[in-house]
Amino acid sequence: MQVSLEKFIFGTLITAALLPINVSAAPVNTLGKLPWQGGISAKVSQTLHTDGLGKSAFDIALPAGTPVLAPVDSTVVWSCIAKGTTDHHAIMLQQANSDRKYTLFHVQGNSSNIYKNRNFRAGEQIGVVAADMPKDRNCAVSYGVHLHFGLPTQNEVVDGVSFTKTSPALNTVLTSSNGTATSPQPPQATTFQSPVSKLSVSVPSVDLTIQAKKVSGQKVYWRMYRTAVGNLPARYWQGEQVASSNSLTLPDLDGSGDTLKGVNYYTVASLSPIPKEDVAKMRTSCFASTGGTQLCDRASR
């Protein structure tokens, strides 16, 4: 993702100029719950401003260590770790079943839990409010401990609170109800039923399609491996996604950049977390040998 450095003002006290909008005429959008642990109250420390990813954002003066939760079912589409830190993230997520995106900056979390294509259910913990204050204009800049919350539009209702050009006002106290009640989820299966998997490699991407009985609603984990090629080291990728039907396509597993011609890519899919060493075994099939717990594929272009 190319981001204009001139716009990168994550967490600063600078308010970008905004185009006037007619809030009363704009449709009302909803984005679930406030993105921190339910029952915790905090003040708005900066009103509407534009962040470096173009989102209409508010800063919330939450203390370090406050659990940061997904406001809605979401998928990570981009993240970075601020220079000089090991776990201070800026994250962009996309709301499930829509093209609406929102941002959360100054989130401390393990990179094994925050990565592209990682899915979070509403109320699931992403990380905690970071205690450090990096000055990385390519990722995150902070002059005080807080959570930066960027919204899809300038007219959103979150947890019953209207976020517009004029509200909430500075120092307004907001109380989250996130995580206080969750919808029951179907029990996670451990084996695939009558599965078919296909890995395909094109110039821009590696895509994996899985079809199986009763996989809808299940969380599917995946890992991908490519051996070292020339001066390029071996690479590993991983992710997870909840299937919305009995057919699931996992697109662009390799992220940005073109794939390598004539090089094999290996994948493992499972309904349980996959050990890193499993994908490095470079298997072309594994359903029977694993008792139905894994699907293995190989493909190249």
Can you characterise this structure?
The chain is mainly β and 301 residues long. The chain has one helix and 22 strands. The protein has one helix at residues 276-279, and strands spanning 29-30, 41-50, 56-60, 67-69, 74-81, 88-95, 101-108, 119-120, 125-129, 135-136, 140-141, 147-151, 156-158, 161-163, 173-175, 193-201, 206-213, 219-226, 235-242, 247-250, 265-270, 294-299. The strands form five sheets. Strands 2, 3, 4, 5, 6, 7, 8, 9, 12 and 15 form a ten-stranded antiparallel beta sheet that branches. It is globular. The two termini are 25 Å apart.
Number of strands: 22
Kindly report the average pLDDT value.
88
Proportion of beta-strand residues: 35-45%
For the sheet with most strands, the description reads:
10 strands, antiparallel
Structural class: mainly beta
Principal-axis shape: globular
Tally of helical runs: 1
Unreliable stretches (pLDDT < 50, length at least 5) are 1-25
Q: Give me the Rg, rounded.
A: 21 Å
- Distance between the amino and carboxyl termini: 25 Å
* Element string (H = helix, E = strand): EEEEEEEEEEEEEEEEEEEEEHE
Helix content: under 10%
InterPro entries: Dup_hybrid_motif, M23ase_b-sheet_dom
Pfam families: Peptidase_M23 (PF01551)
Protein name: Peptidoglycan DD-metalloendopeptidase family protein
